[in-house]
C-alpha cells in the first residue's frame, strides 16, 4: 500500500482527483489531494501567491510524514519539485503526470516558451489586475477534456478558476537534494495542452524504466481514472 498526495495543475483544484482517489482506494492505496494557494475561498490576494508558497502548502500537508508518493499534474511539476528540494527525505517518489519537469534556473513559463508548438495561445486572458490568467469560455474541452463525455467536461470547466502568474514566472532552484528523490514521468500521448513531443523531451531526463505513456488527453484523472490508478499501482509496487 502506498500513500499518495495529489497536486492539481493550473486553474484546477483538489476536486479534480475525486475519481482517482476512489480508484486508488479500491487497489489498496490511500490517496488525498489538496488545494494549492489561490483557489476559491483563499482570502489572500493574487500578489501573495508565490512558487515558495505552493511548495509550502505541500510541505504543510506532509508534515510528519515519510514515504509519500507525490504526484503533480501539469504546472504542479514545479511545486512538487520545490517541495522535494526542501524535504527530500519525506518523499518516496515524484510522479510527473503530463507535467513540466523543471530544470534548475528556469521558470515554468521559460519552459513553455521552449515548446515547438504553442496550443495555449489565445486560450487564456489576463485578469483585470494583470496578476492572474483565466481560461476563455469554451476553450477547456478542446484543450483539457476532449476525451470526456460533454456533460463531464462541462462540469469540470465550470469549476476552473483563475491562476496567479507569479509562481509560474519564478525560476526554480534545484540541487542534489531534489535529484536524490526517485521520479517517473507519465506522458499523455493525446495531450492538446502540453505537446506530447515536448513531454517526451522532458522525460528523456528520466531513466528509461521510469517513463510511461497513457493514450489520453491532458486529464486522465477524469477521462480514465481507473487506468491511471492501475498504472500508479504498478509503479508504486515495482519500486
Please outline the helices and strands.
Elements: E1 3-7, H1 18-26, E2 30-34, H2 51-61, E3 68-73, H3 77-86, E4 91-97, H4 108-113, E5 124-126, E6 132-135, H5 140-144, H6 150-158, E7 163-164, H7 176-179, E8 183-188, H8 196-203, E9 211-214, H9 220-223, H10 225-238
Parallel strand pairs: 1-2, 1-3, 3-4, 4-8, 8-9
Antiparallel strand pairs: 5-6, 6-7
Helix pairs in contact: 1-10, 2-3
Walk me through the structure:
Residues 4-230 form the AB hydrolase-1 domain. Keywords: Hydrolase. Pfam families: Abhydrolase_6. GO terms for molecular function: trans-permethrin hydrolase activity. By secondary structure, the protein is an alpha/beta fold. The protein has a single domain (3-238), classed as 3-Layer(aba) Sandwich (Rossmann fold). The chain has 10 helices and 9 strands. The protein has helices at 18-26, 51-61, 77-86, 108-113, 140-144, 150-158, 176-179, 196-203, 220-223, 225-238; strands at residues 3-7, 30-34, 68-73, 91-97, 124-126, 132-135, 163-164, 183-188, 211-214. Helix 1 (18-26) crosses helix 10 (225-238) and helix 2 (51-61) crosses helix 3 (77-86). The longest helix is centred in the last third of the chain and has 14 residues, at 225-238. The radius of gyration is 16 Å and the shape is globular.
CA distance, first residue to last residue: 12 Å
The geometry reads as globular
Structural class: alpha/beta
The chain-level mean pLDDT equals 97
Q: Major sheet, described briefly?
A: 6 strands, parallel
Number of helices: 10
Helix-strand topology string: EHEHEHEHEEHHEHEHEHH
How many β-strand stretches? Answer: 9
Uncertain ranges: none
Strand order of the largest sheet: 2-1-3-4-8-9
Q: What is the fourth-level CATH superfamily?
A: Alpha/Beta hydrolase fold, catalytic domain
Amino acid at each position: 500500500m502506498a500513500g499518495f498526495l495529489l497536486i492539481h495543475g493550473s486553474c484546477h483544484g483538489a476536486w479534480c482527483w475525486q475519481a482517482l482517489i476512489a480508484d486508488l482506494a479500491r487497489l489498496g492505496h490511500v490517496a488525498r489531494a489538496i488545494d494549492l494557494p489561490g483557489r476559491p475561498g483563499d482570502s489572500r490576494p493574487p500578489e501573495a501567491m508565490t512558487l515558495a508558497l505552493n511548495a509550502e502548502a505541500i510541505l504543510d500537508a506532509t508534515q510528519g510524514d515519510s514515504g509519500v508518493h507525490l504526484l503533480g499534474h501539469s504546472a504542479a511539476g514545479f511545486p512538487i519539485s520545490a517541495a522535494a528540494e526542501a524535504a527530500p527525505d519525506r518523499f518516496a517518489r515524484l510522479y510527473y503526470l503530463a507535467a513540466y519537469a523543471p530544470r534548475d534556473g528556469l521558470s515554468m513559463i521559460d519552459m513553455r516558451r521552449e515548446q515547438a508548438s504553442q496550443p495555449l495561445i489565445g486560450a487564456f486572458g489576463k485578469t483585470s489586475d494583470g496578476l492572474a490568467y483565466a481560461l476563455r469560455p469554451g476553450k477547456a474541452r478542446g484543450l483539457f477534456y476532449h476525451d470526456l463525455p460533454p456533460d463531464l467536461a462541462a462540469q469540470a470547466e465550470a469549476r476552473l478558476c483563475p491562476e496567479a502568474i507569479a509562481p509560474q514566472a519564478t525560476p526554480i532552484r534545484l540541487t542534489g537534494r531534489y535529484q536524490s528523490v526517485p521520479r517517473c514521468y507519465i506522458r499523455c500521448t493525446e495531450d492538446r495542452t502540453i505537446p506530447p513531443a515536448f513531454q517526451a523531451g522532458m522525460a528523456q531526463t528520466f531513466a528509461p524504466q521510469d517513463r510511461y505513456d497513457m493514450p489520453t488527453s491532458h486529464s486522465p484523472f477524469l477521462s480514465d481514472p481507473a487506468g491511471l490508478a492501475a498504472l500508479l499501482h504498478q509503479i508504486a509496487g515495482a519500486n
